Amino acid sequence: MAVFPIYKNPHNPYILLIPRKNFSSKTFSLDRTVELFKQAYRLKVSPKLYAFYPGTNEIQLSNGILVRFSNCGDLVRVVNDRLLRSVKEKVDISIQICKQIFALHQNHIYHGDIKPDNIVLETKKRSYVVKIIDFGAASKFFHVDNKPGSPDLMPPEYYVSELTPKNTYNAKRRDVYVLGLTLYSLFTGYFLHKKYPLDLEKYSKIEKIQREEQIKQIHDNTIQNALCQDILDQNVAKILREFLQFYPKKRILLEKAISDFERIRIL
């Protein structure tokens, strides 16, 4: 989804989500996106939907969705403007994000495009409240056969067919991996795979047995290097390492991640 802030009314700002033109009908449905947004709002995970397509009296839409705009901005702005300075503040936000994604999973909603742009923070009583937006790539199915999401936030199973029997992806474990990359950005201010490019596609023609071994080694070395270089708090690095496991089945459960973050918050 493309995201455009609209300041029609400064006291009641909006954010406008418009489907990208390259979304095929197979992977994107505006009706489904609206319905998932509504479900997420009822779970207190996403901002309020003020209007649906094709428009309202206040703002005319062309095949888009209106949501209430955060009074702080998305996680990209929060990180770039260094609005979160201490590790404790970042751990607090990490707990909230994990709880929101866990709530979606508990209700069989798998986001499919978790990234800093799709996490907004509202300021309330000198604290931040996390909300999740953009359900254009979301699914109600535990196993999916498409590759939604952003190119820089792809888990390794997209490049190693042996990890995905019958070309289906575990939607929950995919979300967990990409959430790990997002939390890395929260703590460091960088996109991990932009700072440490994996370029796994070039290994797609290697013989199957060698390919999996080589890609795993490259992946694990890259993650280890990134965490050692950029995450100063070793407790945080240990948790993120569990998010970013090469094998989907070995990735951390979100309830454990929440518990682990809560434990280090009080250290």
Give the gist of this structure.
The protein is an alpha+beta fold. 40% of the residues lie in helices and 13% in strands. The strands form three sheets. Strands 1-2-4-3 form a four-stranded antiparallel β-sheet, covered by helices on one side. It has a three-stranded antiparallel β-sheet with strand order 5-6-7.
Question: What does it look like?
Answer:
The protein has 267 residues and is of the alpha+beta class. It folds into two domains: 2-68; 73-265, Transferase(Phosphotransferase), domain 1, CATH 1.10.510. The chain contains eight helices and nine strands. It has helices at 30-42, 75-80, 87-106, 171-188, 192-195, 208-230, 234-243, 254-265; strands at residues 2-6, 14-18, 49-51, 65-68, 73-74, 119-124, 127-132, 143-144, 169-170. The strands form three sheets. Strands 1-2-4-3 form a four-stranded antiparallel β-sheet, with helices on one face. Helix 7 runs antiparallel to helix 8. Mean pLDDT is 78; it is low at 1-12, 20-25 and 52-61.
The CATH H-level homologous superfamily of the largest domain: Transferase(Phosphotransferase) domain 1
Strand content range: 5-15%
Look up the CATH topology of the largest domain: Transferase(Phosphotransferase), domain 1
Q: What is the level 1 CATH name of the largest domain? A: Mainly Alpha
Q: So, CATH architecture of the largest domain?
A: Orthogonal Bundle
Q: In what order do the strands lie side by side in the largest sheet? A: 1-2-4-3
- N-to-C CA distance: 39 Å
In total, the number of strands is 9
